[in-house]
Write a structure and sequence with these properties.
Length: 189
């Protein structure tokens, strides 16, 4: 029962964030809610990231497992699991241009996966004492990625082959969320 309640609340949140952004006018008391947990085994769902092109495709993550739906939440498939390892998931993002690309921020780096085989490729590792813990992810396109870590912001201009530390942020500043300006992607918050 508790699992169904948690997943129902998760799906409600997902529905409002993805399907109806800015258009919620109905009285919530009149809405009919449905549980959408078919295929989800985790009870600690934490992160949601939607495909920017196809609203039916959504990714959701627990502490150590990533799930995907391609049918608006009717069924979910486990696509990445770190079960049995000490790796925890802190961030999740879908590529803006290549929506097959999924970025997974963990306690020891940033992974990219995509395509039908869902093979993981580690594209960022720790450089210092905390930098490996990827807490947030943002991208302008497939070349430019920004990650928030326990030691500030890092960015790449070449799909993760090399990384640079952002400037004007004090050392040891945890960056838990990165927001971009909708009109000028070079402005970040």
């Amino acid at each position: 029962m508790q699992k169904n309640l948690i997943l129902a609340l998760f799906v409600i949140s997902l529905f409002f964030q993805i399907v109806l952004p800015g258009t919620i006018t109905a009285d919530l008391r009149d809405m009919v809610w449905q549980v959408a947990d078919q295929g989800i085994r985790s009870t600690d769902m934490r992160i949601v990231s939607a495909d920017p092109v196809n609203a039916d495709t959504v990714y959701a993550s627990s502490m150590n497992t990533v799930y995907k739906t391609s049918d608006s939440g009717d069924t979910w498939k486990e696509i990445v699991s770190f079960m049995g390892t000490e790796r925890m998931i802190y961030a999740l993002a879908v590529g803006n241009e290549n929506t097959e690309a999924l970025y997974i921020g963990t306690g020891d780096g940033l992974f990219r996966t995509g395509g039908t085989d869902m093979r993981l490729e580690k594209i960022y590792s720790s450089v210092g004492k905390q930098e490996g813990k990827v807490l947030s992810i943002a991208s302008n396109n497939e070349d430019y990625l920004y990650i928030g870590t326990g030691d500030g912001i890092f960015f790449t201009k070449n799909r993760g082959r090399t990384w640079e530390m952002g400037r004007n942020i004090p050392n040891d500043t945890g960056v838990y969320h990165i927001g971009r300006d909708g009109d000028d992607p070079q402005i970040m918050y």
